[in-house]
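User: Can you help me understand a structure? I only have the sequence.
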Amino acid sequence: MRYRIALTTAGVVVGLGLVGAVSGPGWDPVPLTETVDVATADTTIDVGVVTDPVGTYEVATSVVDVSLTGHDVQARVAQPLGAQGPRPGVVFVHGAGTGRFEDAFVDHAHALASAGVVTLVPDKRLDTYTTRDRQYPAMANDYLRSVQLLRDLPGVDPDRVGVYGESEGGWIVPLMAADNPSVAFTVLVAAPVVPPRQQAAFAVDSYLRNIGVPDSLLRSIPRFVGMEIPGGGFEYTRFDVRPFQQRMRQPVLIGYGTGDEAMPIVQAPLQLVADLEVAGNEDWTLRYYRDANHGMRIDGELCEDFVRDLAHWVQALPHSAGAEPRVAGAEPYQRFVAGPVERPRWYAEGDLLVVSLVASFLAVATGPVVWAVRRVLRRPGTMMAEGVRAPLITLGAGCVVTFAALAVYLLTVAHLAQNYRTSVAVVQGGWFALRMLGVVTVLAGVVLVYRILDGRRRGGVPAARGTAGEWVLASTVGGAVMLLLSAAYWGVFPALV
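Assistant: Let's start by predicting it. Here is the structure, written out as tokens:
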């Protein structure tokens, strides 16, 4: 009997693993074969023009109001004290992780101002900006109001005001700059270039591989990133910035840190340069900074070489536009292409996925609810045969605990990945423990089935007693089967393919 149970359990586990593997989509990113040829490790931009270095001037800051359509935001202006003549200016465009000028670009704006560049960091407009809905064209129009405000400030040369975009700002700045002479130059730092959904999948893949997650977990990337999120929205994840990059004719400074795991640091600038060529724009400069992260920081501090080059490039324009060498800095490395993300099949899309999971949990919860009601009503007797009750409870509880453990594991792994940390005990040990929970749950289900069959062979002994018992048995088993299939979809069971 034990041999039969063990063999059947192994077969069911393998079958669930196979179901999870073939239920699609799979995940097999293509290795990147293109490279960026770096001329020299020295990022210095030398065009024979003397400019003010960082730290030359004292900096004065003030807060101004920026009027937008139907809304106002505040912005911090940083000005160099004692700087002679009209000065160049830079407006900063936020990435996805920032929204207030108190928190964003504080070091950048101060450093540039101390070199003689007037800077303006506006608050991001948050009344129309959510995780579910982001309108990049509208955001570009809002940021252009800040550009106009800076151009009108005393002491600023209106013909030398440009924009600096970082991360998500790399999708917004080209919208601002395309066919727009009021934007004198652009600085794109950690620009994704590829559509947001592709960049998200690439970033998740990079983070998870870096902390050493099991390969079977990687296949969940397109199943999560590629699906339509419950409740709709997220149309911006398909935004294509390339048509706007192909209409940018301003000088462009492109910067990446080689420690940036979130961005395709080879593929993105190659595509950006190709798009600028379509625009007939040869005024671009590309710099890579060794070990700098997504925010151009090394060990928490803003990269000094980056700030030095940025301040010099802005001040030396137009001489620094397209200065040789075009590409300099540390050698970048990108393992895989940030390619299109395949969508899950119909049964694993957004709302249907949520409905099926909720229905499954409710079905499993039928047993405890009916038991509690019977206790309150003081109904005598039991609903299940003696040998059926324990494996049924283990099956239902095991499914719930397995899913709860999966959620905790994924959140823990995400926290480790975002903080560039890893732990073999957590990443590998946690995954092994999660799979053992799944196996134990399957074992309980197999024992339950055999006990029901054995009861029937012994003269038709019913597994459930009464209508309530039959409902509890059917709903618990049905809900458990659906939860086990869902767990298989997310990779809990090992696949032999």
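Now, to help you interpret it: The first strand starts at residue 59 and ends at 68. Residues 424-457 form the longest helix (34 residues). Let me know which part you'd like to focus on.
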